[in-house]
Amino acid sequence: MYCKMYKASPSGGEVKAPPSKSMAHRAILAAALGGECEVRNVVLSNDVKATLDAARALGARYEIKGDSVVFIGTDAAKTAVIDCGESGSTLRFLIPVCAALGVDAVFTGRGKLPERPYDILAEAMSGHGARFDKTAGLPLRVGGRLESGTYVLPGDVSSQYITGLLYALPLVDGDSVIKLASPLQSKGYVDMTLAVLKEFGVEAAETADGYFIKGSQKYRKDSFTVEGDWSNAAFWLVYGALNDGVVVDGLDINSTQGDRAIFDILLGMGADVSFENGKVVVKKSSLKGVSVDVGQIPDLAPILSVAMACAEGTSRLENCGRLRIKESDRLKAISDNLTAVGVKNAVSGDSVEIFGGCGITGGNADGFNDHRIVMSMAVLALRTKNGITVSDMRAVDKSYPDFFEKYKLLGGQADVIDVG
Question: Which residues contact 231 (CB under 8 A, 6 or more apart)?
Answer without folding.
Answer: 20, 21, 22, 257, 259, 299, 300, 399
